[in-house]
Amino acid sequence: MNRVILIKYGELTTKKGNRKLFINTLYSNILKKLKGLNVNIYRDMSRMYIEYLDKDQDLILKNIGEIFGIHAYSIAYKCDSNLDSIKETISMVIKDNLDDKNYTFKVETKRSDKRFEPNSIECNNIFGGHILKNFKNLKVNVHDYDILVHVEIRNDSSYVYLNEYKGLGGYPVGTLGKCLAMLSGGIDSPVASYLALKRGIKLDLVYFEAIPHTSLEARRKVINLARKLYPYAGDMKLIIVPFTKLQEAIYKNCLENYSITIMRRMMFRIMEKLTRKYSSLGIVNGESVGQVASQTLTSMKVINSVTNLPILRPVACFDKLEIIEIAKKIDTYDISILPYEDCCTIFVPKHPIINPRLDACLEMEKKFDYEEMIDEILNNLQVINIDNKEDEDYQDIL
Ligand code: ATP
Ligand code: MG
């Protein structure tokens, strides 16, 4: 029996003009993800199919469950497009997948070739009759059924399957260009990155580090968060920005209550330069409106004014609990709550300003040559490739 994994595309089916790009990107993302496995992947405008070796089935299903751009997937049995062959295959699918308890069922036939006779409704009746005749424990109920028997009749072959797994949805990563995501060790930014990936945006990651005020443990935490994103993202760069000197200059030269505002303006100035260096179209971060002083709308306006790049804030309007729910789902939560200091949490002012003024920022920023410091920072970046390396291989980087 020839089993394949049948993949239904996600939202991309609504994007008629871009359909080819979406399908091609999904195809190459799946190929990359299943690299090293013995598979054959073929596709048409509405489905993709993976032929595989039985022993790899679980591994492939797990991998497919981590790819954006897939609406649903199932293990389908492939046969010739004629009634006898389909009936025989339906029997086999049922024998392989159902026990002999009583179930209700419905048959749903789809024909991609409308010239195929009989038509879909007649096919439903024929296949339903075949099931009733051969399986005494199965009864038809088209309104309230336990089992949906899918039959898809295509030009060269037909496919029969029962269960569908829900895919992650979204767009295939890479269909919407690349952004740089600001990844701290917190809960929000990995979730924001994940949601940007879901929109089809490819990412490189940026971590601002302030050694010795922050530890290598904090860096390890960020690397581990990045590695949790890898199954969804594919290869990424993690760009480590040496922020110490600039941060110290901020605390020396600026009013304490403005230090976070100005620090974040500096971050965005650096981000803007990095987007050019790493051919990216915008910035992603984990800001959430109202969560902290730097995330009031007035703060965001003043901070944002150093750049006119698109800044995506996927969790801007989420409650913390909603963010945590996703963090748990993608398994970043337990890492994020580890207690290492982040460059934003050191030197935290007692009363950070929640309504900063732009003119005040500009005045304070005149007091030191941040441009030169930024140039120096850009000459001292450290870049780590996040890929499917083993644990030990990341140890060398620390
Ligand atoms: P998170 O939980 O993601 O750390 P947060 O609620 O602690 O977010 P802030 O510390 O104000 O909020 O940071 C807001 C966003 O700015 C973060 O979500 C992240 O995208 C970015 N950011 C903050 N600190 C860093 C850092 N050290 N390196 C990279 N990005 C950072
Ligand atoms: Mg933080």
Can you walk me through this structure?
There is one protein chain. This protein is α/β, with parallel strands linked by helices and 398 residues long. It has 2 domains: 2-169, VC0802-like (2-Layer Sandwich), CATH 3.30.2130; 178-397, Rossmann fold (3-Layer(aba) Sandwich). 39% of the residues lie in helices and 22% in strands. The protein is built from 14 helices and 15 strands. Helix 5 (188-198) packs parallel to helix 6 (216-233) and helix 8 crosses helix 9 (297-304). Bound molecules: adenosine-5'-triphosphate and magnesium ion. Magnesium ion (MG) binds next to loops.
Number of helices: 14
Task: Estimate percent helicity.
Answer: 25-40%
Helix/strand/pairing category: alpha/beta
| CATH topology grouping of the largest domain | Rossmann fold
> H/E element string?
EHEEHEHEHEEEEEHEHEHHEHEHHHHEH
Distinct small-molecule ligands in the complex: adenosine-5'-triphosphate, magnesium ion
Cα gyration radius (Å): 27 Å
Number of strands: 15
The CATH class assignment of the largest domain is Alpha Beta
Features:
398 residues; alpha/beta; VC0802-like; Rossmann fold; 2 domains; six-stranded mixed beta sheet; 22% strand; elongated
